[in-house]
Amino acid sequence: MSTIRVVHYLNQFFSGIGAEEHAGLGPAKKLGVVGPGIALQQALGEGAQIVATVYCGDNYANEQANAIDAILALVSEERPDILIAGPAFASGRYGLACGELCVRAQDRLGIVAVTGMHPDNPGVDLYRTKVHIARTRESAAGMSDAMKVMAQLALKLYARVPLGTPQEERYIPTGRRVHFVAEQSAALRAVDMLVKKMSGQPYATEWPVPSYSQVEPAPPVQDLAHAKIALVTTGGVVPRGNPDRLESAYASKWLKYPIGELNDLKPSDWQSIHGGFDTTNVNEDPNRMAPLDALRELEREGAFQDLADELYTTTGNTAAIPTARRFAQEMLQELRANDVQGVILTSA
Amino acid sequence: MAKELEAAGMPVAYVTTLDGLARSVGAPRIVRGKAITNVAGDPNLRPSDEKALRKEIVNKALKALTTPVKKSTAFD
Amino acid sequence: MRLEVGTFQIRAIEFGARTGVAGGTLVVDKDEVRRLVLGDSHFADVQVHLVRPGENVRIINAKDAVEPRWKVSGPGGVFPGFVSAPTTVGEGRTHRLGGVAVLEVAEPVPGEQTHFREQILDMSGPGAEFSPFAQTLNVALEFTPNPSLFPSASVGAKDVLGGTHEAEDYNRATTLACLKVAAYLARATAEQTPDHVETFELTPCAPVLPRVACLYHTQANYLYGMKIALPFGTLVHPNELFDGALVGWRQAYRSTYWDQNNQAMRELYQAHGKSVNFVGCVLFYDLTPEREQKERVSSAAAKLARLLGAQGALLLGINGSNYAIDTMLAIQECEKLGIKTTLIYLDVGYGPDDPGFVHAAPEADAIVCIGSRDRKITLPPTAKVIGGQRLASSAADPRGELTVNQRDIHTACSTQGFTRQTTRFF
Predict the structure, then answer these.
(1) Which of A241, A195, A212, A230 is nearest to A346 (CA)?
(2) Which of A101, A187, A213, B36 is the right S-S partner for C263, CB 3.0 to 4.6 Å?
């Protein structure tokens, strides 16, 4: 039985090169373990060996074209059976690099690839459905635990042993659904679960509710009277006839429409095409979803300086999180370019 | 989207009826709307009363923008 | 309230000269059934089909399913407000024909709400695994409306979810017809002795046992014959449901049959005196997008559980766009009162990125999943179709191979508790 070959990926910091000032470092490789790789090797045990460690600066990995491919090439040279990236904990750029690298390793090299992140890492929303991400603590204080979880996941995946639930195996839910017929009726399972819960015994939900990452709120607008505000809606408000064909669900885009000359949104000119709620009331008076009339009044009264000349609109109906994030990023560029300091975002 | 903008430093007053959902999702500044079908209005009111309601909701939104928050906060 | 339910277990059905039960066989007098139905001028015709498990038959446009029951003693009668006076039921003795269902089969009429209208019942093949009525001997009533009721083929309904008044009225008529037939079939056993008798009574039990209520988030059904919202909730004894107090098919999923045989309540009865003290049932619902009303509804539902002294609540939830919020708010309100909750719920996710909740509260930490609404199932071609020429929501040939969602299969997505279909999330 030959030893399983493992390559470990690290960023500039964990590979010991240096901190932020070295984030522009290009991809490189060392044989054997580097830094926290020691803990990973211990967690992997005897049947698997870290044959090499590939590392790269987080900025380079995220910003340079072909960076991930270049890293992948170094990984590929070692003919690994498994790639383990990170863990990235809550580090966004590191997480994105790990996620993308793992996806490509799976797709292009056909190998097992596993990484580790804290649930708040932006890489989670983007990659959890494509790659198994071990759930880690926020910082390197959780290193040895993270290594254990990643190692176990990787070895199980390699041996094609079916994984348990995300709760049991401590990875972030991938959204993959398995359907089957249970031994007992839903009613019996529910009564049993309730009895356990009431008596303080341990019980396991069949279906965990999503836990959402928390973000650091932005600082408030300092001087509202001299600030520019933008109106954004996910209520699908568009000019009558929906000239740009905004979808009523699963929006693939966001749009902007000039409102600089308008004092309100007239029902003859605007409508909502949102498919997730009864739009009758909004179609009677679109200000009910995009309150332009009230904003103009407050603008005139001096509550704030200026309303952005454009209404930003999309449908929030079942938008996947990665899509919503992309929209926000794109809108942000425009908002900043137009000196917008605060956003009023309306939805159903 | 609200969270993404906030994380990037742009304060967002999120006006929604589903404030419980907004809170569990973690949107930082939440302004509670009237109803799913008319978040910033109410067809049952007289037009003048409805406009006053809408202005009140927008005012709360503006207040949310100028208030520092640490975690998901509802502005009533 | 003490209810004895006497079962006549039926193993075969056939048409014959006189309706009756003997030796496990139900004989159905087709002419009498037709007379019973056609006494109502809503109908131009009704076809009566006997459909059995394993047959190569596909029933489309299936709506409600009702178990034949007849009250032989005790106050009131079955299906109060429809077949009997609308007075409180749940006591005495009721006969049931076990293993039989009367099916309401009707194409959508003009003005009828068509949201989630598709309901396909395959009596054999892969589809049969998803619907409990593939295992029952079915008396399928296929209704043809009186054409004078619907002069125009296309009608715009203002109420997207409710449909026009004419369509509502017709739907009530088909519901009533099924209930009448179900009662009529069971009535034939009135003088006979059942195969076995089950007793349902919430007897006093040891004070140490935790008090549990069932919180049933219903959906625009008829209660004692009245279609009425329940924003402040109402208390019912489970026996009332066993006698058919809650009936009607609304927007897919539930059926009257599985309230007559409500498994959540039966399991609570089973556990009563052993691991729980089952204290009763709260029905609640309103169809409202208004935040304040949702707060009102959920708070009231939790309050009723509290007044019952509940320490735990088993919720039968609705994971639909509007209702999901109310279900979750009710859970939160209960948990705030110290009432521990579990929930029977349907996954409505569209793909891996979609966690499957319209709305999720962190307090909903004990969920039993009954499967995924949009799971794809391929149904093979079938030899015979009953229920119309067309499917409700697609132009595909109903006789051919169909790829459908789990929600399109008759009652496959019900949270009444009987199903063993489930989904796990990896």
Answers:
(1) A230
(2) A187
Q: Does the CB of A180 have a partner CB in chain C at under 8 Å?
A: yes
What is the rounded CA–CA span in Å between residue A344 and residue A291?
10
State the residue for tokens 């819960």. Answer: A197
| Plot region of C273 (φ>0 → left; ψ -120 to 50 → alpha; else → beta) | left
Candidate from A278, A316, A340 with C-beta closest to B37 = A278
Contact between chains at B20 and C290 (C-beta distance less than 8 A)? no
Token code pair at residue B18: 């589903």
Q: Which residue has the tokens 């959906």?
A: C219
Q: For residue A262, what are its two tokens? A: 């308008």
* C43/C170 Cα distance (integer angstroms): 9
User: C362 contacts in A (CB within 8 Å)?
Assistant: 209, 211
Hey, what amino acid is at A183?
E
Widest distance between CA atoms in chain A: 79
Question: How much is the pLDDT for A329?
Answer: 85
Is residue A206 helix, strand or coil?
A: coil
Per-residue pLDDT band for B20 (boundaries 50, 70, 90) equals low
Collect the ranges in chain C with pLDDT lower than 70.
Answer: 153-162, 252
Whether residue A328 lies within 8 A of chain B, CB to CB, comes out as: yes
Residue A28 exposed, middle or buried by CB count within 10 Å (0-12, 13-18, 19+): middle
- Reported as type and span, the H/E element at residue A85 is strand A82-89
Q: What are phi and psi of A75, to 5 degrees?
A: -65, -45
pLDDT in tens, A27-52: 999 999 999 999 999 999 999 999 99
Count of C-beta atoms within a 10 Å radius of residue A329: 13
C362:B37 CB<8 A: no
Are the Cβ atoms of B1 and A348 closer than 8 angstroms? no
A173 contacts C267? CB cut-off 8 A: no
Q: Give the residue with greater pLDDT, A324 vs A13.
A: A13
Task: Name the minimum distance, in Å, from the CA of A124 to any CA of chain C.
Answer: 11
Q: At what angle do helices C323-336 and C291-307 cross, to 10 degrees?
A: 40
**Extended strands (E) in C294-334:** 312-316
Residue C111 and residue C167 in contact, taking contact as beta carbons nearer than 8 Å: yes
Q: Which two tokens stand for residue C165?
A: 């008044």
For residue A134, CA distances in Å to A48, A95, A149 come to: 19, 12, 6
Mean pLDDT of the region B45-73: 91
* CB-CB neighbors (< 8 A) of C360 in chain B: 21, 24
C129 with A194: Cβ contact below 8 A: no
Beta strand pairing status for C402-405 and C277-285? unpaired
Q: Is the peptide bond before A87 cis (omega within 30 degrees of 0)?
A: yes
Do C350 and C377 meet the contact criterion of CB atoms below 8 Å apart?
no
ipTM higher than 0.85?
yes
Q: B-contacting residues of A 284-323, CB under 8 Å?
A: 284-285, 287-291, 293-295, 297-298, 303-304, 316
Residue A318: what pLDDT? 52
pLDDT confidence of residue B19:
72
* pLDDT grade for A21, boundaries at 50, 70 and 90: confident
Residues A275, A317: contact at Cβ < 8 Å?
yes
Q: What is the per-residue pLDDT across C166-183, written as a single tens digit (0 to 9) for each? A: 898 999 999 999 999 999
Query: Which structure tokens are listed for C38?
Result: 């056609």
